Amino acid sequence: MTDLRAAFLLGAEREFDGSSPTYALLARVIAERPELASPLLSAPEPLRRPLLLFGAVQYALRTTAAGHPLAGYYPALGGTASPGAGLVDAFTDLVKTHWDVLSGLCARRTTQTNEVRRAAQLRPAFGYAASLAGDRPLSLVELGTSAGVLLVPDLTEQETELRGPEPGYLDRDLRIGGRTGIDLAPVRPGDTEGETWLRACVWPEHTERLARLDAALATRATADITWIAGDMVDAVPGAIGAVPGDHLPVVFASNAVCYLDEPARLVQALAATGRDLVLILNEAPPAGLALLTDDPVPFDAPGVLVSAEISGGQLVRARALAGTGAHGAWLDWGPKALNPRTLPV
Ligand SMILES: C[S@@+](CC[C@H](N)C(=O)[O-])C[C@H]1O[C@@H](n2cnc3c(N)ncnc32)[C@H](O)[C@@H]1O
């Protein structure tokens, strides 16, 4: 239980303070009383994260525990009560009375989001890919696609705060000829349980994120997406192989490569396909920029939007395009050329 104490305290200090008063209070209480997090013990050790428990609790409130008093503290569920002693009592009661449900969810689910505003962070990079494509349509292949809401940049309009100059390439039309989404647990249209889980993983005060998610889920349900359930490194060569020869494959990932134990394997797998393609990553530097170059990180930001061109089995050009804020919140545009890494042959 010692690790759970530390995980919840860290979550309160680093993630929830200033962004979710409900989770900040609950995380501090759980750090004092880790038995409240015992449903998490059914999850494999590396996945025992505060957000998995909190997602399971919200899922229960949206399903089997609908009407429980805890919902009164969750604005996402229509609650208006302020966090305080009542919140802690209600949470304690829910964990006690729905322990089996929570434990089952923690055993079979992982924290999973699909943050719509990240589409606005990716949009200039897609424009850049379009500038390289000439007459060819783009075939998008997303790694860690979740519900696929980032696969429809031509059908959705999203905004993010601009902290630097106006991003380039936004005037480039996106002609998209194919869309493939790879995920360990893809949430396809019609998967109502999966969609409820995505909603349950949104923090309770972030009601605007929830509204954006609902709208984007509806839009992506109208698109023709090829879904692949599996590990991104294993599945991506097949997905690229299925892209017609007269399309430009654009492989991209947002906050997903960071889940790989050995992210460098991804770039090797892409290069080994022998196909000319564009790679776009919006990831924390160790899971994105550092796969392409040894250059220092040129932005003071949680994420960096990078692009790379792979040709003849090598990285031929790499660029850091922008610094990016968490949850799609902001973009600091400022393209810089990077010295691309030489890949093992
Ligand atoms: C934090 S979510 C991000 C989803 C989406 N890309 C976004 O930015 O909103 C990470 C996604 O990556 C998926 N994922 C994690 N490891 C994976 C792997 N090895 N192969 C494929 N998908 C993976 C998860 O299932 C989850 O849907």
What brief labels describe this structure?
345 residues; alpha/beta; Rossmann fold; 2 domains; 9-stranded mixed β-sheet; 11 helices; 9 strands; elongated; binds S-adenosylmethionine
Question: β content, as a range?
Answer: 15-25%
Secondary-structure content class: alpha/beta
Strand tally is 9
- Determine the CATH topology of the largest domain: Rossmann fold
What does this structure look like?
It is a single chain. With 345 residues, the protein is of the alpha/beta class. It has 2 domains: 2-108; 118-338, 3-Layer(aba) Sandwich (Rossmann fold). The protein is built from 11 helices and 9 strands. It has helices at residues 2-16, 21-32, 50-62, 85-97, 99-108, 118-133, 192-200, 207-220, 232-241, 264-272, 289-292; strands spanning 138-143, 161-162, 176-183, 226-229, 248-254, 277-283, 303-311, 314-324, 330-338. A 9-stranded mixed β-sheet has the order 2-9-8-7-6-5-1-3-4, with helices on both faces. Helix 10 links the parallel strand 5 (248-254) and strand 6. Helix 1 (2-16) packs antiparallel against helix 2 and helix 9 (232-241) runs parallel beside helix 10. The longest helix is centred in the middle third of the chain and has 16 residues, at 118-133. It starts with a helix and ends in a 7-residue tail after the last strand. The model has no long low-confidence stretch (mean pLDDT 96). Bound molecules: S-adenosylmethionine. S-adenosylmethionine binds next to strand 3.
